[in-house]
Each structure stands twice: as structure tokens, then as C-alpha cells.
Amino acid sequence: MECCGLSSLMGEGSELEKNPSCTVSLAIRNANLKDIKALTDVLTLSFHPSGGWLSFLQPILRLGVSEDLRLRLRGAVPYYCCLVAVETTKTPSETKEKVIGTVEITLKSGFNCHYLYISNLAVLETHRRKGVAKKLLKECERIASQWGYNSLNLHVLENNYAAKKLYLSNGYQICENEILWPNWFWVRSEKLFLKKKI
Asked: In what order do the strands lie in the sheet with 95-110?
């Protein structure tokens, strides 16, 4: 989708810095079954980072994420799409592809209506704040228009300030504030329902 030597996609000491004949491009495409391992890595690292006293649960979380993805990708459900952001690094001797982000868009049912819902927007920490999430959101807008819908909806935790800033700066508006029941640590949190007209 977008190509050229984009050093902004790479981190410090990247291949591009080491090798000036290297080019880096970013493409957004539909996910397939071959992407499941890489998608599991992105989602697990983004939503369930390892470390701490719950790290022993990591393999179970990874298995659950992987199987959920496999079911959704095999499901052939109309109005469902999982997108991946793929970074391609080309040198004279080789080409490497790496999944660095993902998002899912699906049709949900509400009170007497159907609406498109975005979930699982995640970008590897090393590639955040470089426009990857914005490109994934833009592709969701293109898909929504293609499917004949003029709005997108999503949830974000009220205390996820980086995600909230991303959505608000891309035209999403807060429609509803939902209070979540206290979790097992008895911490009350709030979830915001956001909508964007496209």
C-alpha cells in the first residue's frame, strides 16, 4: 500500500540505518491462516504483556488467542475482516516480512440496528506512534464504505490515554461512558463507547 525507505517505521539501530541500500515498506492487507502465530504475538504482547506474578498464564493466554483467531479466520463470516500491517524490509540479498499490527472489523447487532465494530487494534511497542494504527483505522473506514456503512464504533478503556488520544484525534467521538464491574482486584474501571461518521 505504501512504499519507500521509511526510516520512521524502524527503531534505533535498524537494518535501514546499518544498510543504506535497504528499503522498508508498510502494507495493510487481509490476514490469513499463515499469520496466526505473528498475530498471536502482536495481540498477546499488546494486551497481556509478560512479566509479573501472572506470567505463568502466558502460554494459556497465547493458546486462547491463537484458537480464537483461527476460528474467526476460518469462519467465512460475512462482514468480518482481520487486517494486518506488514513491514517489508528489502536488501540486495533478502526480503523480510514482519507483522507489526492488526485490527478486526465486524458487524454487530444492537437495539433494532446493526453497526460496524472495531476491535483488537494492536501495534508492536517498537512500532507505535509511527502512524501504523492510523493506517489500520483508515483501512477500516475504506472497508466500511465498501460494505455500505457510514460509521464505525469501538470501545476503549477510559484510562488508556494513548488509545483514547489516537481515536479522538482521528475523528471518533465519545457516545457513552460505561462503568465496568470491579475486577478480581476490586479496581473499578470505565469503558468508553466511541463512534465515527465516515
From this structure: 23-30, 80-90, 95-110, 113-123, 151-157, 189-197, 173-180
167: left (phi > 0), else alpha (psi -120 to 50), else beta?
Answer: alpha
Q: Sign of dihedral through CA atoms 184, 185, 190, 192? A: negative
Q: Which three cell numbers stand for residue 82?
A: 482481520
Indicate if 95 and 79 belong to the same structural domain.
yes
Alpha-carbon gap, residue 85 to 123, rounded angstroms: 8
pTM equals 0.83
Q: What is the pLDDT of residues 5-25, one digit of tens each?
A: 344 455 544 555 566 678 999
pLDDT tens by residue, 145-154: 999 999 999 9
Structural domain harbouring 194: 153-198
Q: How many domains does the chain have?
A: 2
Quote the CA–CA distance of 30 and 67 in Å, as a whole number. Answer: 18
Angle between helices 132-146 and 161-169 (to 10 degrees): 50
